[in-house]
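From the methods appendix. Each design record in this collection lists the tokenized structure first, followed by the designed amino acid sequence. Records were kept in a plain field format so they could be parsed without special tools. The example shown here is representative of the layout used throughout.

RECORD:
FOLD TOKENS (149 positions):
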């Protein structure tokens, strides 16, 4: 598949996906769907611009050649981090916010390539007490608790 065709297919796919998501938010009560609808319209406008840009002679030249598929960890790292985020959002309610956040922080730091262990630990020592103090003591917000605190 050529890079130009791939660019156009991605743009069309984004327009269709955003249009579908827009239809899912139309019946929400009290304008709860206003922000998602705004985001989806924005995605459709940008994707349409992407599609139009792929029709210009400059982009036809820029997108010459074939698509190169790379299945290395580095190429797929954003997908793995997003999957970790999905697992985190589920685990927050099963295990608890603070415990899950603690483990998520170290796993995400390692996955994204941070290797300065001293800096990672110092950040955690400062970050997690501040999170607790701000949300629990200052705001009085009760964050999700699971089987652990």
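DESIGN:
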């Amino acid at each position: 598949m050529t890079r130009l065709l791939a660019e156009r297919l991605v743009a069309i796919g984004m327009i269709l996906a955003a249009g579908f998501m827009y239809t899912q938010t139309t019946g929400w009560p009290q304008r709860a769907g206003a922000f998602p609808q705004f985001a989806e319209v924005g995605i459709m406008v940008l994707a349409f611009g992407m599609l139009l840009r792929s029709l210009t002679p400059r982009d036809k030249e820029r997108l010459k050649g074939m698509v190169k598929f790379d299945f290395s960890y580095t190429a797929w790292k954003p997908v793995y981090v997003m999957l970790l985020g999905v697992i985190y959002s589920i685990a927050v309610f099963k295990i608890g916010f603070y415990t899950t956040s603690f483990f998520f922080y170290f796993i995400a730091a390692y996955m994204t390539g941070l290797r300065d262990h001293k800096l990672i630990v110092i950040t955690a020592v400062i970050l997690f007490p501040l999170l607790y103090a701000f949300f629990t003591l200052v705001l009085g917000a009760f964050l999700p608790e699971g089987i652990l605190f």
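APPENDIX NOTE: The CA atoms of residues 16 and 139 lie 41 Å apart.
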